Amino acid sequence: MLEIKNLHASVEDKEILKGINLKVNAGEVHAIMGPNGSGKSTLAEVIAGQEEFEVGEGNILLEGEDLEELSPEERAHKGVFLSFQYPVEIPGVSVTNFMKTAINESRKAQGLEDMPASEMLKKIREKSEMLEIDRKFLSRSLNEGFSGGEKKRNEIFQMAMMEPKLAILDETDSGLDIDALRIVANGVNKLRSKDNAIIVITHYQRLLEYIIPDFVHVLYNGKIVKSGTKELALELEEKGYDWLKEEAAV
Amino acid sequence: MDLKEKLVSSFMAFEDGLDLDHPVHEERSNAIKNFETKGFPTKKDEAWKYTSLKGLQKIDFSIFPKQETTLEYKDVKKYFLHDIDTYKIVFVDGVYSSYLSETTHDGVDVCLMSSAFSKPMFQQVIEVYFNKAASKDESLTSLNTAFSKEGAYIYIPKNKMPKKPIQILHLATGNEAALMLQPRNLIVAEDNAEVQIIERHQSLTGNEVFTNSVTEIFAGKDAIVDYYKVQNDAPTASLVDNTYISQKDKSVVRVHTFSLGGKLIRNNLNFYQNGERIDSTLKGITILGDKQHVDHHTLVHHAQPNCESHQDYKGIFGDSSTGVFNGKIIVDKIAQKTDAFQQNNNILLSDRSTINSKPQLEIFADDVKCSHGCTIGQLDEEALFYLRSRGIPKKEAKALMMYAFANNVLESVRIPELKARINKIIAEKLGVRMGFDL
Lengths: 250, 438
Hints:
The complex is a heterodimer. Chain A is an alpha/beta fold. Chain A has a single domain, classed as 3-Layer(aba) Sandwich (Rossmann fold), CATH 3.40.50. Chain A contains nine helices and 13 strands. In chain A, helix 3 runs parallel beside helix 6 (148-162) and helix 6 (148-162) packs parallel to helix 7 (178-191). Chain B folds into two domains: 3-274, no CATH class; 381-438, no CATH class. Chain B has a ten-stranded mixed beta sheet, covered by helices on one side. In chain B, helix 2 packs across helix 7 and helix 8 (381-388) crosses helix 9 (394-410). The longest helix of chain B has 17 residues, at 394-410.
């Protein structure tokens, strides 16, 4: 599904990603953990096509296709989805209308007609129920006045609507209380399939109790310094990151 | 001959056709004297620092339209808000078009200034209100007063409300190579009356048009007046809109100004609060491109205690367009407990576009709440990335953001069809088809 080879990325001449290698197969869930400032969000944004970052060496391949020349919207059309750490507020545009626009733009890019209104409504109903989202919420302006938890839940709602091949969840757990976390994780688990892949970026092991990863990677100082299975997350929870920093320094 | 000379020397010819004994005539004579003394404002005048009328004065404008032109409704239908029933007062090249209009005297008067000036039944209202709010000092207002003859006359008696909104439409056909228009509107809403008015200036050709308009609005106690100005004119049409509003106790007046097209637009919007617990709202959306220029000069004069004013102007400037926002708030010493809010936010889309934004607060009372804020920036890149990451192409994403930026100005529009129309014009200006009706 996703193959990242020796990826380097910098912003204003400061190198943040210093040679990332990562392979994610369809059907897998990968967790990326690491201390603050290690480059986790940068990696997520670079995959999604944030133009603020300068990609130097290396490639990102989605189903074998190099994404380098593609705009963020083209990547979205190919099935890349990023759940933002800080979703943006768009006053005057309802969640529903925003989703209609996003879905129909993607369909247009694939040469498809607009989704029929009845089908769209059915899908919105289905996915909002799955995430236990109140209907009234859907007619509110996108993210405007939403609590941190509502924003995150709304991100996963968008993911459910867009049905991406590759979803990257950037600290989706931050700002969620335990009930919301359970609902969100439940939603994500329902979206897991043999045809898609999910990358979960998090500080804490907590989310990984609900979304159980196949692999766990530790990102430190722009590099993946350790990879393992879900037990690695537990080990990190117990021991913190310091031992890895020391290991990486050696 | 320059434009000033031409206007001054035409005044005598203009007088010829009028009743010189009419009480209004003295006002006209005084006004032309003031204009003759002061002339057109120049960039040396502080209030006109960023807006030059020099170019316009070089054009050989016809001051009186030579012929009457009939227009077919189907050809101008799109300039009306035609999906709802409204009263219409329509002028073609400054001349009233009865064919395109729908006036009334059924409980309220929705008709013409020329009738109001000439018919005895309106004389009392004219004497009480005409030229009582308009400045006698400002030269362009004086120029309009001097030539005041035609325009919309709307009189809503106590406790009345017209059955439907009123549209005032000024059309210019281009029959003259260059035409100057000076419409004069008088709107009176007596105590507890309510009225909704939409005014639009529209040139139909590429010929030059220069409109110097004056509107006086009087809101009695508890009256509610909504006034919408649609400024989406041709690239050769210029407008100086002078609006003077006088409010009494507990009245509500909201003026929305949508400046979306035209060559040069200057809005002088003046609110005078002559009572307590008054609410004044001034909102504007400005979206410009090319070399367009829009100058909003607002004044809110808080002269009595316990009143509010809300100003919210949003501007989006592309290409080499220029914008000005000058918001003056005066709070008199006795106007305690005034709550005056002013906000002006701008987005510059190009390196060549400019905005000059200036709040001007003169506060003489000590127990007031006055806040003002001004921002000038570019579109937020992070937000743009968010929308694009959802598959929305850059152009549409930008349009969506600009729409979101301007949106709260539209929230207070009380005619849904007008709101939809403005949204449509905005979407067209931004060159996008949204996936939904905005």
